[in-house]
From TrEMBL:
Listed name of the protein: Fumarate reductase/succinate dehydrogenase flavoprotein subunit
Gene3D superfamilies associated with the record: FAD/NAD(P)-binding domain, Fumarate reductase/succinate dehydrogenase flavoprotein-like, C-terminal domain, Succinate dehydrogenase/fumarate reductase flavoprotein, catalytic domain
NCBIfam families linked to this entry: PRK07573.1, sdhA_Bsu
Keywords: Coiled coil, Flavoprotein, Oxidoreductase
The keyword Coiled coil belongs to this UniProt entry's keyword annotation: yes
UniProt domain Fumarate reductase/succinate dehydrogenase flavoprotein-like C-terminal: residue ranges: 532-665
Superkingdom per UniProt: Bacteria
Positions of the FAD-dependent oxidoreductase 2 FAD-binding domain: 36-470
Entry cofactors: FAD
Coiled-coil blocks: 502-565
Species whose genome carries this gene: Gaetbulibacter aestuarii
Presence of the UniProt keyword Oxidoreductase in the record: yes
SUPFAM superfamilies the record matches: FAD/NAD(P)-binding domain, Succinate dehydrogenase/fumarate reductase flavoprotein C-terminal domain, Succinate dehydrogenase/fumarate reductase flavoprotein, catalytic domain
Length: 666
């Protein structure tokens, strides 16, 4: 076991990033033209990185498996993006954002990275406004803010419930400018299937053209992975169906350490599972918790009557409703962090108070907000604030202006009007805090191989606060990687073009083709989805919202057996040299079947509860997560041939600017 070098700069926390930028090596504009960079993934992290690197003068090759960068999963982000601008004058600051993020991550993130994230957050908003991102504005024209979970200030900038889409369009526009200039070569419908290592350095990738099936070699002086998270290891998640771990996992198998795979975020406000037919779950933005109140009936008989369809939620008297988050966490109420809100919902449903047919749902109710806003508007307009019809009409208009597309989406999916009847929500797999281990420069343990955004582990610890995913993705792509990658590439200005006719590229391509041929020629009897669903059930039941040693040991064994069965009995129709989505899906599920075992192994090794990792053996008397001081480290796993043989390396986490204490939101 070795100690990892995170390359954190010396000096006071607030000066580290500035000092580091002043100290690192640069590449002159003339020399940037001589250097190629591959960016895999074109979401917010990859899109912003590709655009910025190209603007600086590098030659960028950008890859996405979608038909356009506009299809990246970042488009699905709804509620907002954090920045410590303190526009509300409510006490926010760079330090406060830093503190909230470290505390929200249950003191399992790296101080220096998080402070840098908070520091550059303000630049992101200016960048995006300049691009034309239509953030919501107040009456006077200033940018508006709202609150998200785990904080007591309003620092979240938003564009209705479409923030991810609008930010992605900004990054896409920036990319398009560079594509038109010839500085970005765009490879749509291409999937990275391996990293090529030459003399210990990442020098290219092997990609498959998903339309023709052709296997291609692509070389560069550095490779940047911005391929998102691995939530689809659970099969049912809020991720797009195409989201996968393949790029990161192939890098892991080439020497990049995989950090904290067991840290997975369960989002509390998702539309509940409706049946076995579903292939994904739909997220309802955390922003809804600003105005929606979460509750279940106080009486079990009322919950049973609602489940049986004999009672409507609107017929439950106010005194018979249990606003359990407000009861248990009075200081933060409905805006507790996601892991806390998720476990609280699970506890109420497990106790028999769930409100849908399966008993796995709670209510998210906007009636109080509609009344509050309605009375305020009636007062402003000089109307009768005691007229319920007037108040309701005006209140609905305000709620619609803030959350209209989310309400519309809910009604379209569920068939129930959420203005009239409370929404039903339940926790679901969302974001993954684990990922490839990176140092302060965002470089993995492989020289020249970088990982940004959700694909790395760096900023969120054991739990991510809402509206921080977009913040990290754009911070990494616009304001961090473009500086730090130059320090590495400054040694390559005389290297010349990287050739692809070398033995390393030849061997990597050969291995990719052999894996594809083995899958396509297997001729089993079961579909890819059959195995993916079985894996997802194991993961949810034994590695989901709660874990224990016995279940994790069973999961490790069952996943290994399922992986063996997959290679014996998977059936993939069609051929390799054509558009074949089943083949593409099979490769992704094969990687999930390896990651899942490492996930469970990491969860078993970490004998504590922290954030999204909740071990039932380690909880307080009140059912909260119980951290243990001896686990104040990053778990970084080295690949040794198979997941069961992975070797653990530790990066100890030092807290010099924050007092580590029991996390409380009461």
């Amino acid at each position: 076991m070795s100690i990892l070098d995170s390359k954190i700069p010396d000096g006071p926390l607030a000066d580290k990033w500035t000092k580091h930028k002043n100290d690192i090596k640069l590449v002159s504009p003339a020399n940037k033209r001589l250097i190629d960079v591959i960016v895999v993934g074109t979401g917010l992290a990859g899109g912003s990185a590709a655009a910025t690197l190209a603007e600086l003068g590098y030659n960028v090759k950008a890859f996405c498996y979608q038909d356009s960068p506009r299809r990246a999963h970042s488009i699905a982000a709804q509620g907002g993006i954090n920045a410590a601008k303190n526009y509300q004058g409510d006490g926010d600051s760079t330090y406060r954002l830093f503190y909230d993020t470290v505390k929200g991550g249950d003191y399992r993130s790296r101080e220096a990275n998080v402070y840098r994230l908070a520091e550059v957050s303000t630049n992101i908003i200016d960048q995006c406004v300049a691009q034309g991102v239509p953030f919501a504005r107040e009456y006077g024209g200033l940018l508006d803010n709202r609150s998200f979970g785990g904080v007591q200030v309003s620092r979240t900038f938003y564009a209705k419930g479409q923030t991810g889409q609008q930010l992605l369009l900004g990054a896409y526009a920036a990319m398009n400018r560079q594509i038109a200039r010839g500085k970005i070569t765009m490879y749509n419908r291409h999937e990275m299937l391996d990293v090529v290592i030459v003399d210990g350095k990442a020098r290219g990738i092997i990609a498959r053209n998903l339309v023709t099936g052709e296997i291609e070699r692509h070389a560069a002086h550095a490779v940047v992975l911005a391929s998102g998270g691995y939530g689809n290891v659970f099969y049912l998640s809020t991720n797009a169906m195409g989201s996968n771990v393949t790029a990161a996992w192939k890098a892991h198998k080439r020497g990049a350490f995989f950090a904290n795979p067991c840290y997975t975020q369960i989002h509390p406000t998702c539309i509940p599972v409706s049946g076995d037919h579903q292939s994904k779950l739909t997220l309802m933005s955390e922003s809804l918790r600003n105005d929606g109140r979460i509750w279940v009936p106080k009486k079990k008989e009322d919950a049973e009557a609602i489940r049986a369809g004999k009672l409507k939620p609107t017929e439950i008297a106010e005194d018979d409703r249990d606003y359990y988050l407000e009861r248990r966490y009075p200081a933060f109420g409905n805006l507790v962090p996601r892991d806390v809100a998720s476990r609280a919902a699970k506890e109420r449903c497990d106790a028999g108070f769930g409100v849908n047919k399966t008993g796995e749902a709670v209510f998210l109710d906007f009636s109080a907000a509609i009344e509050r806003y309605g009375k305020e508007q009636a007062h402003i307009k000089g109307l009768d604030s005691n007229d319920s019809k007037v108040v309701t009409k005006l209140g609905k208009q305000i709620v619609e202006s803030k959350y209209g597309n989310l309400f519309q989406m809910y009604e379209k999916i569920v068939g129930v009007n959420p203005y009239e009847t409370p929404m039903m929500i339940y926790p679901a797999v969302h974001y993954t805090m684990g990922g490839l281990w990176v140092d302060y420069n965002l470089m993995t343990t492989v020289q020249g191989l970088y990982s940004i955004g959700e694909a790395n582990f760096s900023d969120h610890g054991a739990n991510r606060l809402g509206a921080s995913a977009l913040m990290q993705g754009l911070a990494d792509g616009y304001f961090v990687l473009p500086y730090t990658i130059g320090d590495y590439l400054s040694n390559d200005i005389r290297t010349g073009e990287i050739p692809t006719d070398t033995k390393e590229f030849e061997e990597a391509e050969k291995q990719v083709k052999e894996r594809i041929e083995a899958l396509i020629n297997n001729k089993g009897t079961k579909s890819v989805d059959y195995f993916h669903k079985r894996l997802g059930k194991i993961m949810w039941d034994k590695c989901g919202m709660a874990r224990n040693a016995e279940g994790l040991k069973e999961a490790i064994k069952e996943i290994a057996e399922l992986r063996e069965a997959f290679y014996k009995d998977v059936l993939i129709p069609g051929t390799a040299d054509e558009f074949n989505e089943e083949l593409a899906k099979a490769g992704r599920v094969a990687d999930f079947l390896e990651l899942g075992e490492l996930f469970a192994k990491d969860a078993l090794e970490r004998e504590e509860s922290a954030g999204g990792h909740f071990r039932e053996e380690y909880q307080t008397e009140q059912g909260e997560a119980l951290r243990r001081e001896e686990y104040q480290f990053v778990s970084a796993w080295e690949y040794k041939g198979k997941p069961s043989d992975a070797v653990l390396h530790k990066e100890d986490l030092q807290y010099e600017n924050i007092e580590v204490k029991v996390r409380s939101y009461k």
